[in-house]
Design a protein that fits this description.
By secondary structure, the protein is mainly alpha-helical. The chain has 6 helices and 2 strands. It has a two-stranded antiparallel ribbon.
Length: 131
Amino acid sequence: MKISKKSQYGLRGLFRLAESDEYLTMKEVAEKEEISPDYLEKIFTELEKAGFVKSKRGPSGGYALAMKPEKINLRMILESLEANLSLVECIDESCKRITDCPVAPTWKRLDQEVKSKLELITVKSIVDKNK
């Protein structure tokens, strides 16, 4: 598994929203994180569809978290932004050898352990560590 820039930027954007009690403009978030506002907006659109971000138009508008930061974990974020979160392709995609593969159970176990660890890391825990 390789975590893309898109997921890295998405997590950084969610971190900034979690720090604030108010709506933040795309420009504010993008400037704090030194990310292209256009690219970040595309990411936030995906995060909004996934239910993590909400937006509001108007002078006091912008973006805010749609959920409490302790309810959003790293696995949820990555699964919403990544095409495939598996460590190896063969355990998620159809492989003609999956039932006969001697290492498939090892890959599956390792994959599940990584995903379980990702569930333990919440946006709130990241904010708390940075205070």
